[in-house]
Amino acid sequence: MSGSPPTRAARATILLAPRSHTRHHSTAVELISRARRAKLAGATLLHGLEADRRSPHRHRLLHDDAPLALVIVDEAPALRAFLDSVEPLLGDASVVLEDVVSFRA
What we know:
Layout (H helix, E strand, L loop, with lengths): L6 E10 L4 E2 L2 E2 H11 L4 E6 L2 E2 L7 E2 L7 E7 L1 H15 L3 E9 L3
Antiparallel strand pairs: 1-7, 1-8, 2-3, 4-7, 5-6
Helix pairs in contact: 1-2
């Protein structure tokens, strides 16, 4: 690839309940705002169309019930500091933290 050289980074995927709220915002919107203020490299909110729940059947979900995944990428120390700072907002959300290689194509 002719873009930037690969660098080590970390990726956090935060799995949120669709109706989780913090103060007067959805928790997802609040987390994205805080990631922006923390000047993290990138944050993307993914809105699911289907979910595989503890059932033998697939579920098509209404817009309000669809699962949310917030994906944030940055250097590991910055991402860990961010996650520590927002821990009170996460409630019962699941967080997956992974080492990744980041580059621009």
